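Example record used in the benchmark description.
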Amino acid sequence: MSLTGPRSQRTVVLALLSVASFAVVFNNLIITPILPEISEDFGVRVAVAGLLVTAYSVAGGIAAVFSGPFIDRLGRKPVVVAGMATLTAATALSAAAPGFVPLLAARALAGLGVACLTPAVFAAVGDYFSYEERGRAMSWVITANTSASIFGVPAGAVVSGLLSWRWAFVALAGLLVLFTLLLWRRLPADAPRRGREGGGGGMAAVPRVLRDWPTTAALVSNYLSTSYWFVFATYMGAYFHDEFGLAKWALGGLTMTMGLGVLVGSNAGGRISDRVGKRPVILWTSLACAVFIALTTTAAGAMAAGLGFLFLFAVSGGARFASSQAIMTEMSPGDRGTVMALNAAGQQFGIVTGSLVGGVALEAGGYTALGPTAALLAVVSMAMYGLFVQERRAGPAVRELAAE
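Model output (structure tokens):
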């Protein structure tokens, strides 16, 4: 592959990578509308059924730490296809699960697939697109996974309501089979990487990446950004229902509101970051996230105001995400797959951390405390970038590596 390859080839690659990204988020969010039915079907409390999300995130986070060196050594395509095939198998097993524990195991297996798929997708974007256009390329991938959040929850709810939660998994498994075949046949093969010269291969790449302090600081900042997002997102349905009387049937609209915000923000932020730089966009949007999420639970006297603040928070978060993913691909480009795998692991653990911190804040100070708690994490995340992270432009060695 080459950064200077035909634009038509890179467009096809970007479309295929977007498909893979869509599949990951769709698989994650399909649990949301069918969780009550699963709880009832297997006779477990909703809180216990929520472990399906935890198993998915924890398994994916742990596995992602180990997947990075394989992404760098084997190449992007084998790992993307293997990850999608694993996700397909896990989804099919979820549909046929005879009990809650087998379903929990199937969701953990899905997390393993995502641990391979997500970092390989973002590493491939870094390979195919120059740094000067990478923000825009990332915005298309994020548009795809945001579309899954907008359409995935309603689609899962419709299929589950008309048939059952098992058929929601069956329908998704069929879609994933198609995606796996498409990626296997159409995604261009890339040569295995040798790794950074003199650095050693395998798991040695992980400590090598973490010894680079700016890279570690960026990873921590991104971990915090996922955490502050889920401090509020985990409990936003309960907040809008209890504080403003939003009907339960309308709670899915909150996901769509945030999804639309991310859609707008990622596209605008990705394009702006290609012009003015990724780091300034990350700093300003992190600050905006802190302001708008704090206002959502402290200054929203009416539901319309709360939804407005939530939408602006999502716009800011989407812009930050597109820019931060682009800059991460250039932090340690010789170990790009490992960096993106560690970044994916941080995001998975950020989901768990955010929900736990949000629960503590909720118990201590009620719904009002959620916004300021998330805002504090956003400010710390911004400070990590402002103090320790600089943009690293792609040089000739990186272009040569990407062309191997």
